[in-house]
Amino acid sequence: MSDTAPLYTSRQLAELVRPLDRPQQFLVNLFFPNVRLFESRRVDFHVLNMAREVAKYVHPDSVASPQAERGFKIDSFEPAYLKPLTPLKPSNMLDIRPGERVGGDMSPLERRAERIAQTVLDHEAQVLRRIEQMASTILATGAITVVSDEYPTATVNFGRDASQTLALTTSARWGEDGVSPTANIRNWSQTVATNSGAVVDTCVMGGAAFELLVAEESFRDRLDNRRQNDGDINLFQSPKGTDAWGSYQGTVGNVDYFTYSQPYTEGGVAKNMMHDYGVILGGRHQLHGVVTYGAIEDDEALVAAQFWSKMYRVHNPSRVFIEAAAAPLPVPARVNASMYVQVR
């Protein structure tokens, strides 16, 4: 037996994560279901320009004239870097762990192994939670701003049309006399279709916004919370994306309605992924949402990966450090296939 406690390799640390529960990512699952890994710091996307030109009238005997090919643009983004780091002190291994009987029934090495596994899980949970927060912000604003004491403030603006980020005021707010939420949603869906060509099939709302919508009798009468497949009706069977924080409320026409509220903290400040009066509209497949990952900038890695962990030891004072790294960025390749409105 070795005289020193073992250091785990990055591969072994990755294995520790697999059997453990991951945080659920409601918005990511709905709107950014795809993953792309890059072996570079920047990530690039080619986006075809919209083409709505009709064919010209010509005489049958006229010579056909050439027309320009549909153009495209290259969007290039640099993901922010995430690098949680946790030191483990020898004294941590001498104290009993949660669930141990009084007096302890685990050896220091057993406690050490459990603590390492829990630390890797915590790091991964922080990264996944940050990606969900980024997705929430991008859907709400069409952009993401990275602010940190150790990182120059930087904004990635995906260029969503300004008419697709709204905040209703005064007499236009939901709940005011004469305001029809269903008429609003119909008009906003048309705006999305005009600016992107996408069809809105998903509406995610804060709880208070949904209460104002369902208070409208015409909507309430049409809301169907049954899922029908090949003639079989399944009560309360939710579409992909539903989890503990998001709830499927029903379908009207071709639009699925969800409510969502997930608390998190940032710098000790309590926040929520979804404003209580917020409404996200989108074509969840036509958005072409992708969570991209830039290369891991570590001399021991230098690979394309979603999440990377390593472990190393320092002396005087004796510490073991567990470090994680990730460079994620959710990208809505067709950003105008989404819209956000704060309705009150």
TrEMBL record:
Stored Pfam families: Phage_cap_E
Top-rank taxon, per record: Bacteria
Xref: InterPro entries: Major_capsid_GpE
Family matches, as HAMAP family: CAPSID_LAMBDA
Name used for this protein in its record: Major capsid protein
The species this protein was found in: Pararhodobacter aggregans
Lineage start: Bacteria, Pseudomonadati, Pseudomonadota, Alphaproteobacteria, Rhodobacterales
